[in-house]
Amino acid sequence: MRQRYLVVDLFSGAGGFARGFKDEGFSIALAVDNMPAAARSFKANFPEAIVLAEDVKELSGADLSGLVGGVDVLIGSPPCEPFTGANPRRMHDPLDRLYRDPVGQLVLHFTRILAELKPRVFVMENVPGLVKGPLKKALLREFKRAGYSEVYFNILRAEDYGTPSHRVRVFASNLRLKPPRTKRIITVSEALKGLPEPGSGFPPNHDVWMPSERKRRRISKLGWGSAMIYYRGARRRLPNLIRLHPYRLAPTVLGSSRFIHPFEDRFLTVREQARLMGFPDHHVFLGGRDEQYNQVGEAVPVPLSRAIAGSIRDYLKGS
Questions:
Q1: Residue 80 appears among annotated catalytic residues
Q2: How many other CB atoms are there within 10 angstroms of residue 85's CB atom?
Q3: How would CATH label the architecture of 6-184+300-318?
Q4: In CATH, what number does 188-297 get?
Q5: Nearest to 77 by CA among 153, 18, 118
Q6: Which of 297, 76, 295, 12 has the alpha carbon at shortest distance from 167?
Q7: Among 11, 93, 196, 221, whose Cα sits 20 to 30 Å from the Cα of 171?
Q8: Alpha-carbon distance 82 to 84, whole Å?
Q9: How far is CA 120 from CA 11, 20, 74, 104, in A?
Q10: Which among 195, 188, 211 is positioned nearest to 262, based on CA atoms?
């Protein structure tokens, strides 16, 4: 009988990170997210898991272990806004982003619960900006305080593992993560292939959101790869409302990003954006429309999660 390793997921969102682990044979025991819609989505997709719609700051490792017992793997994706260059309001001093920003401090609550649960493996996902400058040394100190003196900051690209969109993320872990890369690039056209017309009732989250007539006229003039608007990030202007190029990878899917269909003058449905993140069509997203888009854009892409989970499973079996 195959060993079922227990996973706890902090800042779980709708379950992109957990989905890859479940696909690789792990048991998703418990998840925590303070957004009620995301917690409901997680429960709908992982009915076997205990799901807490709680603030991680208010929980302890004892609270969690009391519900599930011993934990093999702790995963989590603390909010990246304090560390990303896409945020024009992030604090200037990198250490302030970790120690003074109330949202950035959630990383420290991850390390606090890590110290209390003491899993065999942990993986914490965030933007590469989390480990820039003095932040890397500070995080090594925090993980050592949690009982993990050997920590690796694994930089992985989602498109190297079969995700139809660009995404570069750091995965802090007590393991060196080097999953085998896939050799095939999946384009936008391939990712969207086979979906029925929006509004047909299946798959879920495939309802069309039509722009206003004024926006539709502007959209009709956009070529592949062009953006309708730009907004200011921390260092440069960034595009949004991009018409996707059908024969290339999609840009990074973010909670705030909306894409325009490559061939039709409309926004992508939530399901189509979920396809760009590698979600299976049966994975549902609950809540309002913007909440659903956010749950997709803030997730760990499923193919990348699956690759990471496979490496961890092999390690646990070997050890």
A1: yes
A2: 15
A3: 3-Layer(aba) Sandwich (3.40)
A4: 3.90.120.10
A5: 18
A6: 297
A7: 93
A8: 6
A9: 19, 18, 8, 25
A10: 188
Tokens 């009982």, located at residue: 147
Which residue among the candidates 31, 56, 71, 80 is catalytic per the annotation?
80
Q: Which helix (H) or strand (E) holds 21?
A: helix 16-23
Taking residues 128-150, what's their average pLDDT? 96
Q: How far is CA 146 from CA 131, 278, 319, in A?
A: 18, 33, 22
How would you classify residue 256: left for phi > 0, otherwise alpha for psi between -120 and 50, otherwise beta?
Answer: alpha
Task: Pull the structure tokens for residue 186.
Answer: 């999946």
Tell me the pLDDT tens digit for each residue of 18-74: 999 999 999 999 999 999 999 999 999 999 999 999 999 999 999 999 999 899 999
Say how far apart CA 3 and CA 256 lie, in whole Å. 39
* Residue whose pair of structure tokens reads 């949690």 in the numeric block: 146
Structure tokens at 114: 């890590």
Domain locations in the chain as residue ranges: 6-184+300-318, 188-297
